Amino acid sequence: MPIPASWDFLPEKPPANRPSPPVPKKWGHTYVSITGNAGKGEEIPLTGFGGRYWPNIFMQAGATGLDMPPMEIHSDTSPNLAGSMYRSTRAAAREIMIPLFLYGIDRYTVRRLKQSLIRALNPLNGHCVLKIQESGLPARYLKCWYKGGLEGNESEDSSGFRWIRYGVQLTAMDPWYYGDDFHVAEWTFGQGSSFLKPAKSLFPLSISQGLVSREDFPVTNPGDVSAWPVWEVTGPVRRFRFTCGDRSFGIDGRAQDAVPGGTTLKIDTRPGHKTLLDDKGKNYWPLLGKSPSLWPLPSGRSQIGIELVPGSANATLRMTIAPRYETY
Q1: Are 273 and 266 contacting, i.e. CB atoms less than 8 angstroms apart?
Q2: What would the pLDDT profile of 186-202 be if each residue is shown by its tens digit?
Q3: 182-325: which CATH architecture?
Q4: Where is this region: Disordered (predicted)?
């Protein structure tokens, strides 16, 4: 039989300051497009499917290789020791697969979509640029080369009279995403009216002063990894040297100006470029000092050293980087 019992405890009272659960932030759709012919062709949207009444190319679920690039770990082994010894790490080429669905209102439109996609991705016409832009955020760009996937498959689950499925395979030799060029800093040396010239924003930063030799010029790289600067030195400049940590390069003292007045020397430190040419086509590479190191700019905030001796008039120095990102 039931045994009567009393309620011998009180219910727990909620805390006075009850925490509020996080509120999801409204987020729009991610925009994805691809542009062929070395990035100069027509931009093909991959996320703009407008319904069954509009022919289009759109990206399906299942894309791979769009986040962190693959890494290669290098190590050494010893026959007398267990395990291995770490040496270095490098980012390898990025392999990407994008499933695409081509939909046409008739056979004619689906053939036109197929032909335009094949023409845009043909590596004989150059690389293609994959653009990904999250809602409200800057666009990210990835330079890719078509590898395969458009060969075609006439099976029932891969193509029809008005539609085709492809699994496009791309290779990004440079595995990092890029944003728009970011103008880091601009300095003016020589005769000037003020040390820090007012500007609309913090960057580009303009400084005006005479002979300069400092090791603590603050610069910022907004990317996730190091970036390779492009320097522009406008003469007259007798000598200069740029330093980051224990790496440096420059042109040492000479009897005449290293960069004559009215001449702009462009120093491109990017891999695959590594050039020192002025606007008249002169090569300055033989003029560099001993053991030059065209260094990259680390991510985040850092300090660089600038030693520059202007000539008889004002000289300007500009540093531009293209920030690199691990993912979009």
Answers
A1: no
A2: 888 775 333 333 344 44
A3: Sandwich (2.60)
A4: 1-24
* CB 227 within 8 Å of CB 270: no
Domain ranges for the chain, please list them: 31-71+84-175, 182-325
- Choose among 232, 249, 229: nearest CA to 240: 249
Q: What is the pTM of this model?
A: 0.81
What is the CATH code of the structural domain delimited by 31-71+84-175?
2.40.30.200
DSSP state of 53: T
E-strand ranges in 149-272 read 163-172, 177-178, 182-189, 205-209, 212-221, 230-234, 237-244, 247-251, 264-268
The answer to whether the beta carbons of residues 181 and 319 sit under 8 Å apart is no
The two beta strands, 140-148 and 163-172, are antiparallel
- pLDDT of residue 28 exceeding 80: yes
Q: What's the confidence (pLDDT) of residue 210?
A: 55
Which token pair is 34? 């691809």
**Quick one: pLDDT at residue 199?**
40
What are the CA-CA distances from residue 296 to residues 1, 38, 184, 226, 304 (Å)?
A: 84, 26, 14, 6, 11
Q: Residue 260 in contact with residue 237, Cβ under 8 Å?
A: no
Distances (CA, A) of 200 to 34, 96, 149, 171, 206: 34, 41, 49, 40, 11
How far is the C-alpha of 307 from the C-alpha of 213, rounded, in Å? 4
